[in-house]
Amino acid sequence: MTDSRRPVAIVTGASGGIGAATARRLSQDGFAIIAHFITRMEMAQALSDSIVEAGGDCWLIQADLTTVEGVDDLVAQVDQILAAHRHQELQGLVNNAARMLGPAFGSATANEYDAYFALNTRAPFLLTQALSKRMRPGSGIVNISSAAAHFASPGDIVYAMTKAAVESLTVNAAPALAGRGIRINSVVPGFTDNGHAAFQDPEVREHMSGFSALGGVAAPETVAEAISFLLSDRASRTTGTILDVSGGSTIGARPYASRRSLRDRASQ
Ligand SMILES: NC(=O)c1ccc[n+]([C@@H]2O[C@H](COP(=O)([O-])OP(=O)(O)OC[C@H]3O[C@@H](n4cnc5c(N)ncnc54)[C@H](OP(=O)(O)O)[C@@H]3O)[C@@H](O)[C@H]2O)c1
């Protein structure tokens, strides 16, 4: 049963590890959730069921954010949900959906380059542009960057470039949105156990751990905690910045890290 007082937050890529943890956390914070997915409907449905079972609200949206049409379709579906629940206002957006890792400097094709930038950078830009117009003052937007944007990894160059652009979007959109009382920030995760098989491989996990000054990999709930903070009134004076939850992966203290890309390592 919908609680008509709940503010609404959209999480793209909510069928993935960090997105699902974020949707659950924001629901606990009192948001009604619009959870986006593209292929893993069963993961999205399980997320929605768990939120509703815990007393929250969750609507599912399917859209391919690689295309402009898919972005427009997501916005149109959000409009339909908001029109059907007129007392619930949009107050949060988490631009989380992305293609991860690779392609490498030596092998990246123009098509791959465009596809990574379309999903990881253009979609957050267009969604921020369109959905911020539907937000009231006090709302917040969080873009998910990556520690990969902060160190050289030629094997993942295109992915890293998309995430550097996401941080630039955050900085440059902040003053544009501030006049409307909307804050925008980035979160920078390092390796975070999103449930993918690679995180079960001890050798791959050790490789990932070597990037972090604190060692280990993060739980998705740790990233969700930072997103929760940035969307809350506790961060009411925070905009245009990045919150690093990479376990110190961006400070260069990586005594055990290999310089090979994770993709090379996982495919051995
Ligand atoms: N996990 C890490 O180690 C790590 C580290 C640094 C940064 N990050 C960042 O954290 C965010 C979440 O990552 P994650 O680890 O949770 O990844 P994940 O589990 O692989 O989830 C990726 C999400 O993106 C969605 N997606 C993929 N292609 C899409 C498309 N064409 N259109 C729309 N949605 C699409 C997926 O939808 P379906 O599941 O429905 O296919 C899924 O919900 C990403 O921005 C990533 O770059 C992750």
UniProtKB/TrEMBL annotation:
<dbReference type="InterPro" id="IPR036291">
    <property type="entry name" value="NAD(P)-bd_dom_sf"/>
</dbReference>
<comment type="similarity">
    <text>Belongs to the short-chain dehydrogenases/reductases (SDR) family.</text>
</comment>
<dbReference type="GO" id="GO:0016491">
    <property type="term" value="F:oxidoreductase activity"/>
</dbReference>
<dbReference type="InterPro" id="IPR002347">
    <property type="entry name" value="SDR_fam"/>
</dbReference>
<protein>
    <submittedName>
        <fullName>SDR family oxidoreductase</fullName>
        <ecNumber>1.-.-.-</ecNumber>
    </submittedName>
</protein>
<dbReference type="InterPro" id="IPR020904">
    <property type="entry name" value="Sc_DH/Rdtase_CS"/>
</dbReference>
<dbReference type="Pfam" id="PF13561">
    <property type="entry name" value="adh_short_C2"/>
</dbReference>
<keyword id="KW-0560">Oxidoreductase</keyword>
